[in-house]
Design a protein that fits this description.
Strand order of the largest sheet: 1-2-4-5-3
Radius of gyration: 30 Å
Helix content: 40-55%
Number of helices: 17
Oligomer: single chain
Shape: elongated
Distance between the termini: 48 Å
Strand content: 5-15%
Length: 511
Amino acid sequence: MKRLTRLKQTKMNGQSSEASTNSSSSPSHAKTSNLLVKNQQFIEATLSDAGDLQRRHFKIEDKKASLYYLSSVTEFEKIERMLGSAFDSKRSLNDMLEHAAMFVPTNSNNKVIEALLEGRSVLLIDGEEMIYLLDTGSIIKRDTAEPMNEKVVRGSHEGFVEDLGTNVHLLRRRISSRHLAIHYHKIGTDTNTSVCIVYMKNIANPQLVQEVTKRIESIEMDMTFSPGFIEEFLEDSTFSPFPQVLNTERPDRTMAAVMDGQIAIMIEGSPTCIIAPITFFAFYQSPDDYNSRFYVGTFYRMIRILSFLIAILLPAIYIAVVGFHFEIIPNDLVLPVKSSVEQIPYPPIVEAIIMELTIELIREAGVRLPSPIGQTIGIVGGLVIGDAIVTAGLVSNVMIIVVALTAIAAFVVPSTEMNTSVRILRFPFMFAAATFGFFGISFAGMLLLIHLCKLESFGVPYFSPVAPFQWKDLKDTFLRMPVWLMNLKPAAYRPLKKKQQGYSRRWAKNE
């Protein structure tokens, strides 16, 4: 597939043979020794620059033993409890090791170092070739509070956190099914970041699961900073302005996606979950659509889709009308519009760009500043700048209204990624309108529509169910029909189990 050309590159035969030679001779891949001194020397030499490496020496049945751990990622209280419960007893060493579930034996030096870096402690015993790993890692995590950028009026108010285990727990608690598949992978040669792939094995298409797994395993980089790093490796068309995966911090939305046959990708250290594949209309859906009456959900969904057209077309339409098609303005509005624009010293495209960039500057300043100051900058800055720029005769009153409506329409989108894409797309439409008027807008619109119809997300048509047209999926696209009518899963994801639910209104008369 074309996306895989940007993934892991094949190494040359000479480099592969050299790497294999080095790895075979490297002590990190050798087995542990039955001599305590050699194991101690290996750990201390490998982590010689780790100032947080701690060691404790004692005896077990007259045998010398050592316990190594990294104090920065290890919970000392756990070590004390394990030492007290395990080593203060009078049981024999063999009996203690056989019955203590906390000890995980290994004879791999590489696994010993990995365990230390992950926060576990390692127990070395003289005369024993096996080294025992103890789960003593410290866990620092915040509450599962509702995400700030995905708030809902009704429904769950839980959100993902930075701990991967907690996120999997939140999802497992909502899907108590034996068919829920969870697979872990490691990304980042230096960071060893855990990545989790979650899907329903009786619903998700096996080819889709295989493709996602292949792309994840093909990623080769030193570190995984955020989900944004992984997204660019996974997307089919990185240069497209539209996001081809959905980011969410809500467990309920992730659960709904997994039950529809999609795949969730969760990353250690980030509360953001990646949903793939995805379609264009999924970005305009909100959990509130399903927590309220169907006609309320339909109304607000139609407003969101209308906001997409307003956000990318309204400034362009204003520029085209003022610059080329003044005759379409109603007679009652001709004089007010003319008096507003006739004193402006430059064409409409210039004042549109000035105001759009000003809005973006105010927004960026509000995001980067602390919350109380950011809100003040957003409100006061907008009012003061807007009034001053109109009074100075640099921008017309009508343009202020157009830019304000455009900004509001752009922020209606529930997804931050799609929000950014919409704000960027308005600029090409503005230049097209300034060049050719309505003809330029029509041409740019056709190019945008062609791109949406051609775009794919993991082989799934991005503009489904409109292109290709699937009328059964329209029940949950522009409209939000009653839940009992949406008895089929989205066909675009090619799920193995197509039926969503049974008909549950048999109590109604004549049904």
